[in-house]
Design a protein that fits this description.
single chain; alpha/beta; Alpha-Beta Plaits; six-stranded mixed beta sheet; 33% helix
Amino acid sequence: MITVSVSLSPEGVIGKLMAEGHAGFALKGKDIVCSAFTVLLRTFARTVEASPEVVWTVTEDAPGRFQMAVSSVSFEMTEQYRGWCEFLLRGLEDLKGDEPLRVRIKYGNYSGRLFHGS
């Protein structure tokens, strides 16, 4: 099972995200559920990475495990980052809806405020 733990900031966006596991739909390398999950997560991470206005760190990136934390988002990027988060979370929720025995999402709170500047 793929387990995703998402910590949302007071602004309702991703502050921390941790994913681990394997869907078990098929063998590694042939699993369409894992592939769909990977595309969603990788696109989100690459989009965040391309934005210098989002300060983030990847604390783990290994086969079957990924962990990241966002420490700040410039005020100018507020709505754009919110949209990226909504896109990722909608995709993950839809994947979980299609494959509830293979994807689990846990939500928690992130104590820091992410949006800074004016």
